[in-house]
Task: inverse folding
């Protein structure tokens, strides 16, 4: 009989360690261990092992981010709206590679990072931020792996992030995700004419149909049935369906954890789920379907699943 | 025989007590890789159903919970499947055919891609733990190959050569869909070959 006892034991240990540290099964094991030993330290949610959840955006706690004054950020090669977003979304703790890259200085970290990005501008904001966070080598390795696995568009962060070491992914995401998602939000196009008033704002309200106090997770825009609705940002259709509450609705995913939803439509888009849409492209017509008291568009903006008020971003001119 | 060789031999004798743990662990790693992709697609599928979701975000939360539940269930299946392997291996295809069942057919089809995906995940983790360079790539690849040989292949061989004697041909029918879905996702997303094909 072939022996290899040491080798097998080592490999078993390796596989068990991988389960313990990287999977929900290991998370359950850690819970059990903590319960058995009376360890009261905070336990990781099992859902946290799913990579798509991502770290919380640095700017999301503020819920409403003040819009940057037009002249607040000096011009440079690194373009708007990423430039402004960098000022607001820069996490408190920068990735070690970025700290090393920027060195020490009297100017704020955001200014030094902007200067570095201006100097090293390569035409790709996402790639430039990622390189600033972890350097070329790790990024190239992840792109190689994503290419080998047959991922579409492997150079995009969303396509190759799963192939980065977990800690590095978190560090990149804390910088790239935050800046890109806020840039996406800054650059939103209003789905209807920007002059249309908001008939029901975001936040707590008395529901017009049920009469109960309920959190309103978006804004209502009263527009006649049949009004063209435009994609607030380029993205992918992740839902185009109907139910008795939201009526006919469309959800678009814009990357970086940003989603927009358009509810109570009369007409859904011609394109099906999975199709790409461009910013400003017509994605349906407004209506009065579902639980609705009159023709309007219910417009929702979500960041990592959390609904935020889209109203402050209406004034931002579209690029 | 020197001490190391004796110790190695002793460990090898106790292999049946702990080897299955590594085989199952490898499948759990590969399953997670698949489930981590499945949650997004499940969410899209749920959102496309004509159901009255109180909030359009709910399908995406439900998708995550369903993928997690499937992952945990499949991990339990892997333990049971290995425990059920018969003591008497089959010697000929005819003998295997006599033990034919959905469980015995689907099991290896699931095990192969999922355990290979797990091997690749471990290879990447090893490469990531070493300083970037060719050495890291070679060591990672080597460990991945060893894991595939000593854990993935041995588990697969156990399932194929020692299928349990079924009570009914339909044994394993309930597990067929989750196993094939997870196995399919592992094959699609967990094997570093599609880019080169």
Result:
């Amino acid at each position: 009989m072939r022996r290899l006892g040491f080798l097998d034991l080592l490999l078993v240990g390796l596989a068990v360690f991988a389960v313990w540290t990287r999977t929900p099964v290991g998370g359950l094991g850690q819970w059990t261990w903590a319960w058995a030993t009376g360890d009261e330290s905070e336990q990781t949610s099992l859902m946290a092992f799913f990579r798509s959840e991502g770290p919380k955006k640095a700017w999301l706690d503020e819920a409403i981010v003040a819009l940057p004054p037009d002249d607040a950020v000096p011009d440079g090669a690194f373009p708007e709206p990423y430039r402004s977003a960098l000022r607001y979304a820069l996490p408190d703790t920068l990735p070690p590679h970025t700290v090393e890259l920027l060195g020490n200085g009297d100017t704020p970290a955001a200014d030094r990072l902007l200067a570095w990005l201006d100097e090293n501008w390569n035409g790709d904001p996402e790639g430039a931020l990622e390189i600033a966070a972890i350097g070329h080598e790790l990024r190239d390795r992840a792109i190689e792996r994503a290419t080998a696995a047959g991922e579409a568009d492997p150079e995009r962060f969303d396509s190759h992030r799963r192939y980065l070491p977990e800690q590095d992914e978190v560090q990149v995401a804390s910088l790239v995700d935050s800046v890109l998602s806020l840039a996406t939000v800054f650059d939103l196009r209003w789905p209807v004419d920007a002059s249309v008033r908001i008939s029901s704002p975001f936040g707590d309200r008395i529901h017009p149909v049920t009469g109960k106090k309920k959190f309103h997770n978006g804004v209502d825009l009263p527009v006649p049935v049949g009004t063209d609705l435009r994609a607030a940002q380029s993205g992918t259709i992740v839902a185009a369906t109907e139910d008795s509450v939201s009526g006919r609705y469309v959800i678009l995913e814009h990357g970086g954890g940003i989603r927009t939803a358009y509810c109570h439509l009369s007409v859904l888009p011609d394109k099906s789920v999975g199709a790409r849409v461009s910013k400003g492209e017509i994605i349906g017509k407004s209506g009065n379907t579902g639980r609705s008291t009159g023709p309007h568009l219910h417009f929702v903006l979500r960041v990592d699943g959390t609904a935020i008020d889209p109203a402050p971003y209406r004034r931002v001119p579209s690029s | 025989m020197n001490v190391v060789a004796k110790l190695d031999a002793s460990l090898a004798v106790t292999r049946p007590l702990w080897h299955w743990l590594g085989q199952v662990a490898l499948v759990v790693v590969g399953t997670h890789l698949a489930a981590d992709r499945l949650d997004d697609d499940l969410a899209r599928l749920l959102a496309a159903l004509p159901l009255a979701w109180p909030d359009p975000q709910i399908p995406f939360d439900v998708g995550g919970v369903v993928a997690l539940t499937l992952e945990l269930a499949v991990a339990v299946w892997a333990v049971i499947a290995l425990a059920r392997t018969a003591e008497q291996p089959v010697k000929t295809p005819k003998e295997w055919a006599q033990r034919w069942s959905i469980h015995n057919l689907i099991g290896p089809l699931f095990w192969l891609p999922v355990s290979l995906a797990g091997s690749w995940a471990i290879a990447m983790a090893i490469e990531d733990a070493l300083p970037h360079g060719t050495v890291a790539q070679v060591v990672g690849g080597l460990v991945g190959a060893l894991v595939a040989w000593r854990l993935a292949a041995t588990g697969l061989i156990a399932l194929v050569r020692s299928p349990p004697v079924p009570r009914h041909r339909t044994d394993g029918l309930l597990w067929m869909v989750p196993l094939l879905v997870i196995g399919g996702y592992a094959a699609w997303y967990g094997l570093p070959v599609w880019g080169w094909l």
The longest strand of chain A covers residues 258-267. The CA atoms of residues 146 and 154 of chain A lie 5 Å apart. Chain A has nine helices and eleven strands. The mean pLDDT of chain A is 86.
